[in-house]
Structures are given as structure tokens and as C-alpha cells.
Specification:
By secondary structure, the protein is an alpha/beta fold. The chain folds into two domains: 5-100 and 287-306, NAD(P)-binding Rossmann-like Domain (Rossmann fold); 102-278, NAD(P)-binding Rossmann-like Domain (Rossmann fold, 3-Layer(aba) Sandwich), CATH 3.40.50.720. The protein is built from eleven helices and eleven strands. The protein has helices at 17-25, 38-45, 60-65, 84-89, 102-117, 120-128, 155-166, 190-196, 216-221, 239-248, 287-305, and strands at 5-8, 29-32, 50-53, 71-74, 93-95, 147-151, 170-174, 199-202, 226-230, 251-256, 276-278. A six-stranded parallel sheet has the order 7-6-8-9-10-11, with helices on both faces. It has a five-stranded parallel sheet with strand order 2-1-3-4-5, with helices on both faces. Helix 1 links the parallel strand 1 (5-8) and strand 2 (29-32). Helix 1 (17-25) packs parallel to helix 11 and helix 5 packs across helix 7 (155-166). The radius of gyration is 21 Å and the shape is elongated. Bound molecules: 1,4-dihydronicotinamide adenine dinucleotide and 3-hydroxypyruvic acid.
């Protein structure tokens, strides 16, 4: 390996001590980007053998500038911030960590769902403001009489299914393949899931097919009073259509962990709606998941440095 440098484009953890301990011991230098602007990444990527990225856009110009690059690691599951086509064309391996936070995201999804269906966010705000009563709360429904529709039934969707069953929810799912992975979960068409869900939760990756999957036309198909949960990617929802759906009452509430764009403009009308609860792309986080993620990415980098195949290659 001629280059001994790697570039970390961005990371939400304050220090890189896990990466430094393992990589510096092997003689690898870490370049910690000061910001994730494309021009900065183009400049810093020139002589690195690997790029590790959380949410920064690893664009075609960044990849083409990285002349010695053998590996691009997504420090996470979703691959929507990496130009996979160009990486593959240049025979650069791309990896992700497909299963480090499945339980955390499923728990978070149920958390958002319960906060909305039990009016926990609403009552919390009112109680803190000194209003100790049940006046004017949105209607609440018995969960065991509600249909939860999942769009996407991969690692996370299936984990949400298991939890939701324990709450007595009637769960159904939609994916293009219709594979229920032996769970017995009814698999429906997109139209059926939109028409029949009392709660709709998104667990599909961001792609051309899922971009603005929730738009004015699909909002129209939803059951009146539906609750919408998104812990996948913000751009699965057209934010303007969501706002209109909330304002007309078609959508009774939204629980959002992901946004378009990120970070969102929290002064936007959408986030001022009382029936929107939001968390800052935090669904994946626990001490355990983040440590596991960082260790596994570091091992992928070490493998390639040592001339071995890394785990979880997505483009081979
Ligand atoms: N908020 C957070 O902190 C986190 C968010 N995520 C997001 O969650 C997404 C899902 O993660 P996993 O379940 O692990 O992925 P996965 O790859 O195991 O499952 C994805 C599922 O989406 C389905 N799918 C693909 N295209 C579809 C379409 N057009 N319509 C409906 N379904 C479609 C697939 O068939 C599969 O069932 C990730 O792609 C990522 O964007 C992942 C981790 C953390
Ligand atoms: O792992 C993912 O895809 C996340 O969204 C967290 O970065």
C-alpha cells in the first residue's frame, strides 16, 4: 500500500480515539476533515487509501480526486450519500455496517409511535406549561385495534414488526419483493398499505424509487387521521406535502428522526406544528451501537491496508 493515510469526512462523536488507537498502531495516519464541503474533501482526498464517511456527500468529484483510494466506508447503513456508480467504475470497494443499530432504530421507531399515539409529547408540553388536565388532546386509540403499515421490511422493518406484535398491533408491510422472511407478516401492495394503515412507518432506503414516496398524491391515498413515522431518510417524504397533510388533518401526527435537508430549518412551519415530534437523527445511537460501528469500520480499513478483503462490501 503506497498511501498510509485515510480521510474521515465527518463524524458526530467528539474524538476519534477508537480509530486512532487501532489505526495509528498500524502506522496509518488519520486526516480528520475540518468541514465536509466538497472542495475541502476534494483537497484532502488526493492521497488517501480509504475514505470513511458518516453523512458527508462523497460525490463524483471527491471520488475522482482520490487517486489512491481503494476503499470507501459508510459509517452506517444507508448508502445514499456515496456515489456508488463512480466508486464501482473506478473499482473502489464500498462497505457499510448493515446491522449495528437495528435494535436501536426499532426501539426509537416504537418510541416515536407511542409518543404520538399516547399523546405523550402533547401532554408533556402541556403539563410542563402548568396545564394538568386532559382538555383538547388529540383523540387516542387502542393500539390493538390499529393497523401498523411498514414500508420496507429489511433488518429494521422486521425488528419493528416483532416489537409491534408484542403491543398487539395488526402489522402489515410493503416491499417490492413481497418477501416476508418467514415471519408471517402480511405483505401488501403500496396502494393497500397506504389505504389501510392507521400508523405508517418508513424503513426503506433512499433511492430514485423512494425519493418523495410520500407526496401530495400518496398523502391523498392515506387513511384520514393516519400517524406517520420516519426513521429512514428525510427525503422519503416531500416536506411540503407533509405540512399540507398535517394542516388539513389528513395526517394526525408525524414522528420524525430524519429530515430533508439535514439539519432542518427548525423555524420552518412544519416543525412548529404541535402534532410533529422530532429527534435529531438519533435513532441509531447507543453507547453499544456507536462503539460497534466504529470498531467495525476501523477493522474494514485495517483489512484493506493489510491486503485482505473487508467485511460487508456492497459493490462486488
Ligand atoms: N435514523 C437512523 O439513525 C437510521 C436510519 N437508517 C435508515 O434505515 C434504512 C433501512 O435500514 P435496514 O432495514 O437496515 O435496511 P435493509 O436493507 O435491511 O432493508 C431495506 C428494506 O427496504 C425495502 N425497499 C427497498 N426499496 C423499496 C421501495 N421502493 N419500496 C419499499 N420498500 C423498499 C427492501 O426490500 C428492504 O426490505 C436505511 O437504508 C437507512 O436509510 C438506518 C440506520 C439508522
Ligand atoms: O446508519 C445509518 O444509515 C444512519 O442513518 C445513521 O448514520
Amino acid at each position: 500500500m503506497s498511501s498510509r493515510k485515510i480521510l474521515i469526512t465527518d463524524h458526530p462523536w467528539p474524538e476519534l480515539e477508537i480509530e486512532e488507537n487501532l489505526l495509528r498502531a498500524a502506522g496509518i495516519e488519520i486526516v480528520d476533515a475540518p468541514n465536509d464541503a466538497e472542495a475541502t474533501l476534494i483537497d484532502l482526498a488526493q492521497d488517501v487509501f480509504a475514505i470513511a464517511t458518516c453523512w458527508a456527500e462523497v460525490t463524483e468529484p471527491v471520488i475522482r480526486a482520490a487517486k489512491s483510494c481503494k476503499l470507501i466506508c459508510r459509517m452506517g447503513i444507508g448508502l445514499d450519500n456515496i456515489n456508488l456508480k463512480v466508486a464501482s467504475e473506478l473499482e473502489i470497494l464500498v462497505t457499510n455496517v448493515p446491522d449495528y443499530c437495528v435494535e436501536e432504530v426499532a426501539d426509537h421507531t416504537l418510541g416515536l409511535m407511542l409518543a404520538l399515539t399516547r399523546n405523550i409529547g402533547f401532554f408533556h408540553q402541556r403539563t410542563k406549561q402548568g396545564e394538568y388536565n386532559l382538555k383538547a388532546g388529540p383523540p387516542m386509540h387502542r393500539l390493538s385495534e390499529q393497523r401498523l403499515g411498514l414500508i420496507g421490511f429489511g433488518h429494521i422493518g422486521r425488528e419493528v414488526f416483532q416489537r409491534a406484535k408484542a403491543f398487539g398491533l395488526d402489522v402489515a408491510a410493503h416491499t417490492p419483493s413481497g418477501n416476508d422472511y418467514g415471519t408471517g407478516c402480511p405483505m401488501l401492495s403500496l396502494d393497500e398499505i397506504l389505504f389501510t394503515s392507521d400508523i405508517l412507518s418508513l424503513h426503506a432506503p433512499l433511492s430514485d424509487a423512494t425519493h418523495h414516496l410520500i407526496n401530495d398524491s400518496t398523502v391523498n391515498q392515506l387513511k384520514a387521521g393516519v400517524i406517520l413515522i420516519n426513521t429512514s431518510r428525510g427525503s422519503l417524504i416531500d416536506p411540503a406535502a407533509l405540512l399540507r397533510g398535517l394542516q388539513t388533518g389528513k395526517i394526525a401526527g408525524a414522528g420524525l428522526d430524519v429530515f430533508e435537508p439535514e439539519p432542518p430549518d427548525l423555524h420552518d412551519e412544519l416543525y412548529r406544528q404541535e402534532n410533529v415530534i422530532a429527534t435529531p437523527h438519533a435513532a441509531f445511537v447507543s453507547e453499544e451501537s456507536v462503539d460497534e460501528l466504529r470498531m467495525r469500520v476501523t477493522k474494514q480499513i485495517l483489512a484493506v491496508f493489510n491486503g485482505e478483503p473487508p467485511q460487508n462490501i456492497v459493490n462486488q
